[in-house]
Amino acid sequence: MPRSNRPRRPSGAGRSKYQKEPVELDTEGVRFGFGRREDAPDGLWMVRPIRPSNAVKEYSCPGCGQPIPPGVAHLVVWQEDSLLGAEAAVTDRRHWHSRCWQSRTYRRR
Hints:
By secondary structure, this protein is of the alpha+beta class. 20% of the residues lie in helices and 24% in strands. It is built from 3 helices and 6 strands, in the order αβββββαβα. A hairpin with a 2-residue loop joins strand 1 and strand 2 (43-50).
């Protein structure tokens, strides 16, 4: 019998012990970029890159005070170890130019 005509096994049957359940894809992370944690002298930060296609509003960079116009790639940053909790930290997030964020610790030493 050709392989394509074989009856299918019920889900979970015949699964080896090394095969894992399928992982659900984080669609928000795919659309907006995956975040990374950065440990810096001023705390633990969550940094998420924003692609030009997803940058639709104008923001003011706290590093240089200049505007970040729509269509420009930048970073969204919030403090991971906030004293007020994770929810307050996310609401206090800021949009930074990538270069301003990279050089911020050198200016504040």
